[in-house]
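Can you make up a protein sequence with its backbone structure tokens?

===
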Amino acid sequence: MKIISYIDKMILELEKSGKPAEYIIMGKKFFYEWIIELTSTGDITLENNKKKYKFTHKGIKVIICESEILEVVPNSKYLMD
């Protein structure tokens, strides 16, 4: 399954349960695959010589980490329920 489709599926599952997605957490491997998918479809263009980027997917902030994780998480107040 493509990374974009998988992320969209996780977002939809959270929305169905009434919990809006706040962050997408992904490891570097998933991040590279995600960027390749976005650039191949033309949904993103990367600027040359830019050192810092802030990525979002459908308005949801993307957090990149060292571990191999791909997760969409809601606001922490929804995790307490």
Q: What stands out?
A: The chain has one domain: 3-75. Residues 3-16 form the longest helix (14 residues). The mean pLDDT is 88. Residues 47 and 53 are 9 Å apart (CA to CA).
